[in-house]
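Ticket #883: bound-state structure for (3S)-3,7-diaminoheptanoic acid.
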Amino acid sequence: MDIARTPATPDGNVEMADAAVEPKDPPEIRREDYRPFAWLVPEIRLDFELGLDSTRVRAKLTVAHNDKAPHSPTIRLNGDGIVPTSVTVDGSPTQAYAMDGDDLILTLDGKAHEIGIETEIDPSANSQLMGLYASSGMLCTQCESEGFRRITFFPDRPDVLSTYTVRMSGPKDQFPILLCNGNKVATGEDGDTHWAEWHDPWPKPSYLFALVAGDLVARSDSFTTMNGREVELNVWVREGDLDRTEHAMESLKRSMKWDEETFGREYDLDLYNIVAVSDFNMGAMENKGLNVFNTKYVLADPETATDGDFDGVEGVIGHEYFHNWSGNRITCRDWFQLSLKEGFTVLRDQLFSQDMGSEPVKRIEDVRVLRAAQFPEDSGPLAHPIRPDSYREISNFYTATVYNKGAEVIRMMRTMAGEEAFRKGTDLYFDRHDGEAATCEDFIKAIEDGVGLDLTQFRLWYSQAGTPKIVVDLSHEGEEAVLKLTQMVPVTPGQGDKKPMPIPLKIALFDRDSGTHSGEQLIILDKASDTFRFAGFADKPVLSINRTFSAPVTIQRDTLRSDLVFLAQNDDDPFARYEAMQDLMVGHLVAASKGELSDSEREAGHIDIVGALRSVIEDEALDDLMRGELLLMPSQTYLAEQMSAADPARIHEEREALKRVIGCELQDEMHALYDRAATLPFSHSAEAKGARKLKTLILTYAAAHDPQKAAELAAHQYDGSDNMTDRQGALMVLTGIDSAERTGKLLDFYNRYQGNALVIDKWFALQASSLHPKVIEHVKALADHPDFTLKNPNRVRSLFMAFAGNPHGFHAADGEGYRLIADLILELDPINAQTAARFVPALGRWRKLEPGRSALMREQLERIAAAPKLSRDTFEQVTRSLG
Ligand code: B3K
Ligand code: ZN
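RESOLUTION: The complex was predicted; output attached.
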């Protein structure tokens, strides 16, 4: 039977249509087409004969009718680039199967069967890094979302849950360590070969399967859970990396404790393994009991990792650990529900990091990430709701919208419920859906029931894309402050008519004279427009709104500059204070970039900004981590987002000009601050971290004002540093200055860290993100450097993602920056489609730019679209970006 030419059989697989089409036009998978799978696979046994070039996989699947789905005699087992070398049904070899594209279809006459399938794969040829692949002599897997089908044929969808028993064997010398999910139940040897058998008692979808084999060493420790279960913990790395694993292990223990205390979640196996690999498409993966991590989020010591890297390790270790409940114990019914696990888990890791360090600074950092990555997505051609309605390639939907906006949406529920009630809601969710593949709707319902909150209208946050804009109008009538709020949810691709959403806004009304307010309030704007009245104000107060960034919206307020200066000096909510400082600078820079400022207006703006910054420097109540946030200028990308037809060159010019003014006017204060910060010895304390943050920030202002002096200072900081934060900060400033120190220190850095891949990544990234006028030439030369390779995603990102995020180079007026990224996408696509597709959004911003650059950018997208063969990943992103 040639299934490829027959209509889709009713076996309930939403991806039925997938295989029969040309790769150039992959089909759209729609959320509304979800059907439960007609078969259950309660058990799978896997036997791996491991080899780098050839691994034989024998799978035995126990299958049975799913009573909760319409019956179908056919079972579709997904495959991707694999062929069956043998197929059996109930132990008897059979040829009675059909291939439909890459999938294998069997027709079964009974209610329950055992299917046996053998495949042979070549891990060393797997450059996509999905499925089983080789990385520096070891073998490892990545299965989310659809990598398991590159290993064996299986219903590779998250709502098919099985218990896994896995036997793995291989040469002892090559793979002395054999790891899999769950617990190791048996081991043995046979000459030069050895084997291990693993069993995972928790039913899981195929995307959570993992296997690792290699020459690894572990930092081991243990954790006793709240109910006294002793858990063995291991962080596995290559031998030379062991002394850089302490922070990862400590972060893991802190995560386990925090999740017990904060969400009542206890770990459920006797073993928790983390393995670090250097070739990895993303940050890490939460496979049950066997997390696989990018080395970037495991290895850290002060000599080679910055404070930001340390925070990153803690956050990602926490994130993957928290998935054990939000993702693994309760998984997703289908990939449209991805935010169910990712949005919730991002919120959990954000709250964890807030508790481990500075709460307000972490909040500001998270908002900055949201604004830099998610807001542009939401206002561009790739906009989608946190629960998308359709996709062609699910890998393209691991986005800032699903992750970070998803977290913000759940955070709003928490804000409206209050912390204690929210915990009742999450407890109910975990109880009600443990062991299931659930939906976002299940989560919302559990919060509703547990908290006692009506979230009917709130569900719109799951279905409507676009960042709402709130227009604020504060007036004063008699003794009342009158706040009129209007919301607009913008039109996004495929979504024209938007409904008003409930928007929780924390506000405070400040008395201008005393600089205080009488209490923060939470108001909910749930209509297109609404008016809120506040009695007892003899004079018009100053409004502080969206405190703690209580809603992921943009606020348009016609605030007097003097009010922003007031809030920048007085607001007791650190986020709102930061926001006022940013708005002060954004307002000035946007107007200046548009050429709207007269000389005297420009001068007045400078005076206000410098005055507000001076008061931040002088405010003794501030800690340096927070002071650093308040002294930061808005990024060029954020500024461009505030404008239509943005001209990146003009924005850059104005931003540098303001930096120069600040560097000049505040040079004495900053110098004194630098000297104070420089006296602190290295430690991981908040105080010392704050001091390091200030030092490099001050160097960036000095570089704009007096480059030669800044180069000397930076070289001095570089030479005297005993940690990577100071050294990288100094080198970052130096790479942007055409000076003798630049060449010398870059060479020194390279020689000092040659062989340490993560630090050499920094060396590439620093040069690619530099303000140097010849940055494009530098990037081209670096792409030919012997240490550069397209095979390693970290290295590709370190050079090209850094460059694509460098407005100064990427937006070169002649379009050379766009061409460079388009060339990369075309070259990388056949090697690693997932990583290549991640570069497309940078080119999708063409509608937001001035006409010249807009046309040049679009030209490059069209060039990519015209390529004879594109991956599904890149095809989808380019098509959507062209719109
Ligand atoms: N769940 C994984 C991401 C998998 C991405 C697959 N393309 C990591 C995480 O979010 O924890
Ligand atoms: Zn995650």
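RESOLUTION NOTES: Residues 169 and 195 are 4 Å apart (CA to CA).
TICKET STATUS: resolved
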